[in-house]
Write a structure and sequence with these properties.
52 residues, mainly alpha, 62% helix
Length: 52
């Protein structure tokens, strides 16, 4: 099981647009987390400067 800190880092890095390969997690884990944390990722993406 991954730590909460790892999950938060995943959310932050996905919001920045990093690919799964650069996150050093299995694709299966990333895929599950992408769905699970979609709202948090979208919120962070909306807060980034220069985004519409």
């Amino acid at each position: 099981m991954k730590s909460d800190a790892t999950k938060q880092k995943f959310i932050q890095l996905r919001a920045e647009g990093l690919s799964y390969a650069k996150l050093h997690l299995s694709k299966a884990t990333c895929s599950k987390w992408e769905s699970k944390f979609a709202d948090e990722i979208a919120t962070l993406q909306g807060q980034r400067p220069g985004r519409c």
